[in-house]
Amino acid sequence: MKQCQKPPSNLFSSPWFLLALVSLVTVSLLVCTQGSSFSPLFSQWLWTTTNYTSASLSLTQPFVTSSPSSSNTSSTSLVLNNEVHALLYNSSTTNGSSSQHIFAKESSVSSTLQDLPMEREVKRCSKLEMIEVGLTSARASIRKATRNLNVTERHEDPDYVPQGAIYRNAYVFHRSYLEMEKLFKIYVYEEGDPPMFHNGPCRSIYSTEGRFIHQMEMEKHFRTKDPDKAHVYFLPFSVVMMVAYLYDAKHHDVKHIGQTVVDYVNVIAGKYPYWNRSLGADHFMLSCHDWGPSTSSHVPHLFHNSIRVLCNANTSEGFNPSKDASFPEIHLRTGEITGLIGGPSPSSRSILAFFAGRLHGHIRLLLLEQWKNKDEDVQVYDSLPDGVSYNEMLKKSKYCLCPSGYEVASPRVVEAIYAECVPVLISDHYVPPFSDILNWKSFSVQIPVKDIANIKGILMGISQTQYLRMHRRVKQVQKHFVVNGPPKRFDVFHMTLHSIWLRRLNIRMRN
Ligand SMILES: *[C@@H]1O[C@H](CO)[C@@H](O)[C@H](O)[C@H]1NC(C)=O
Ligand SMILES: *[C@@H]1O[C@H](CO)[C@@H](O)[C@H](O)[C@H]1NC(C)=O
Ligand SMILES: *[C@@H]1O[C@H](CO)[C@@H](O)[C@H](O)[C@H]1NC(C)=O
Ligand SMILES: *[C@@H]1O[C@H](CO)[C@@H](O)[C@H](O)[C@H]1NC(C)=O
Ligand SMILES: *[C@@H]1O[C@H](CO)[C@@H](O)[C@H](O)[C@H]1NC(C)=O
Ligand SMILES: *[C@@H]1O[C@H](CO)[C@@H](O)[C@H](O)[C@H]1NC(C)=O
Ligand SMILES: *[C@@H]1O[C@H](CO)[C@@H](O)[C@H](O)[C@H]1NC(C)=O
User: Fold this and answer.
1) Spatial distance between the Cα atoms of 210 and 183, rounded to a whole number of angstroms
2) pLDDT (0 to 100) of residue 149
C-alpha cells in the first residue's frame, strides 16, 4: 500500500531526485519531443462576475471549443452533449416537465444492444459502442428521474438520500450518483514513476491532489485494469510533485514541468489508441496546485479537450465548467481531519465575520486595507494575536470570509464548512467545487471583489432566519467535503468522481 507523503523540503537530499531525473531523461529519449511555449492558451470563454444564474444558463448553450472531431488525427467523432449537465445546472425545481425537451433528441439514438449493427469489423470499436450504450442508458435513467414529479418517492439508499435546498436538483443528483456507482469505470495509466506520477502530497494545502491520486491507486470499485472497458482515462501526474522536483526557482523556469507533461502525453498517445481516438476528451488530469491550469496548457488538447479537475478554477484562465471540474482545496496540516469538524450553535457565535491570513494577492490586500483593525463585527487579521486560536475564531463567527489568494480557490471555504461557519466567498471568476450539483447560494454568500467595502452591510442585510437556514445547510453539505481514508460514499473523493462522471456523460463518441 502506498504511503501519503509530503512534498520534499530538501530536493537534493532526496533519493527520489535521481530517480526522477533518470525517468525524465528516459521518457525524453523515448519520444520525439515537440516544442511548447508556456503562455497559457486563454479560451474565449469569459465571465465578468461570479454570477451563478448566468453561469447555469450559459451551460445550456453547447460549448464552443476547438472541435476534436474536425481533426483528422482522430478516428472517432465526438458529439458534445450538454444535456445532463444543463439539467443538473437548472436548479429551478424537481418539476421535471421543463427539462423534458432537453433530452428530446436522444430518443433517436439507439439505446439497447439489439439496436446496434450486428457486424462489427473492429473489436475495439464494438467495445466503444458498448461503452456508449451503457452511458446512453444511464442518461435515460437520469432523464427519467427528472420526469418524476412525485417528490415523495425517493431513491432508496441505506447511507444517505440527498434532499433539500443545498442541491440544484437532489433527486437527479441521486439518480446520477447511483448510475455512476453501477457503471463508471476509470483506467489509470500505469506509465510514469513516483515521485511525480502515481503519488502526491497527502498533507499541506494541496492535500486533495495527492489524496485523490493515492485513492485512485488503491481504488477497487471504479477502477478497471482493462482500458477497453473504461469510460475515462486518468493521467496520474502530480503538478505539486513536479513543481517540487522540476521547477527551477532561481530562473523561474517551468520548462522541465511542461516538457514532462508533453512527453507523458506523447508516450500515452503513442502506446495506446485512446488518446488519439478522442484527442483527449475522455481523459482527465487533476491538480490542486496554482499551476495546474498553466501546466495543462503545454498540451493544447489537454487544455482544450480533456477534463481538467482543478482547485484553481478560474474562468478567465480558460476554466470551462462544462468540461472541466472544480474540486476543493483542503488544508490538511496533520493529514487528519479529526477535531476539525463541528462547531457550536448559532447562538454562541458572537462575531459577525472573521478572517485571518497574510497578504497573498490583490484581493486580500483590498480586504486588509479595508477591514483590518477597523470594526468589532468584521474581524480581519493578517496575523492573530498571541493565544488566539484560529479554529476557535472560526467557531465563534457566524460568517467566515474566504477571499481568493493568488489563485481563486481558498482552503478557508472548507475550513468554514467544517467549523459550521457560513462561508463568504470573495472572488471573481471562481467556479466553486461541485457547482453542478450544489446550490452554493443556499449555504454561502458570494461577494464580488468590488463590494469588499460593503461586506458588513451585505452580511447585516441577511435576516436571522436566512442565516439560520444557511447554517443548517452548511452542516448538511459538510458530508460532501469530508476526507475519509478509505473513502466513503458521497464524500469529497466520490463527489470529485461524480464531477468527472458528469463530464463524461456530456460527451458521446462515435466511430
Ligand atoms: C445574473 O445573471 C442573470 C441572468 O443573466 C441576470 O438576470 C442577473 O441580473 C445577474 N445578476 C447579477 C448580480 O449580475
Ligand atoms: C430551467 O427550468 C425553467 C423552468 O422550470 C426553464 O424556464 C429554464 O429555461 C430552464 N433553464 C435551463 C438552464 O435549462
Ligand atoms: C486534415 O484535415 C485538414 C482540415 O480539416 C485538411 O485540410 C487535410 O487535408 C486533412 N489531412 C488529411 C491527411 O486528411
Ligand atoms: C411544474 O410544471 C407545470 C407544467 O409546466 C406547472 O404548471 C407548474 O406550475 C410547475 N410547478 C412548479 C412548482 O414549478
Ligand atoms: C408517490 O410515491 C409514493 C411512494 O412510492 C406513493 O406511495 C404515492 O402513491 C405516489 N404518489 C403519486 C401521486 O403517485
Ligand atoms: C497518435 O497520434 C500521434 C500523432 O499524430 C502519432 O505519433 C501516434 O503514433 C498515434 N498513436 C497511435 C497509437 O496510433
Ligand atoms: C483569474 O485569472 C485572471 C486572468 O488571468 C487573473 O487576472 C486573476 O488574478 C485570476 N484570479 C485570481 C484570484 O487568481
Assistant:
1) 25
2) 60
The DSSP 8-state label assigned to residue 433 in this structure reads T
Looking at the structure, do residues 319 and 427 belong to the same domain, yes or no? Answer: no
> Which ligand lies nearest to the CA atom of residue 408 in the structure?
7
Nearest CA to ligand 4 atom 10: 95
| CA–CA–CA angle 350, 352, 357 (5° rounding) | 105
My answer on whether 285 and 301 are in the same domain is yes
Q: How far is the CA of 102 from the centre of ligand 4 (A)?
A: 16
Least confident of 6-10, 16-20, 63-67: 63-67
Residues 193 and 291 in one domain: yes
Domains held by the chain: number = 3
Q: Which of 98, 80, 105 is nearest to 172 (CA)?
A: 98
Whether 2 maps to a domain, the answer reads: no
- What is the span of the domain harbouring residue 260? 15-42+185-329+494-510
Nearest ligand 6 atom, CA 271:
13
Q: Are 357 and 325 part of one and the same domain?
A: no
Q: Are strands 77-80 and 507-510 parallel, antiparallel or unpaired?
A: antiparallel
Q: Which residues line ligand 7 (CB under 6 A)?
A: 314, 316-317, 361, 404, 406-408, 429
- Within 8 A by CB and 6+ apart from 63, the residues are 45, 80, 82, 320, 322, 323
pLDDT tens by residue, 73-88? 444 444 444 555 555 5
Domain with residue 442: its CATH number is: 3.40.50.2000
- Residue 388 DSSP code: -
pLDDT band at 326 (very low <50, low <70, confident <90, very high): very high
- How far apart CA 121 and CA 207 sit, in angstroms, is 46
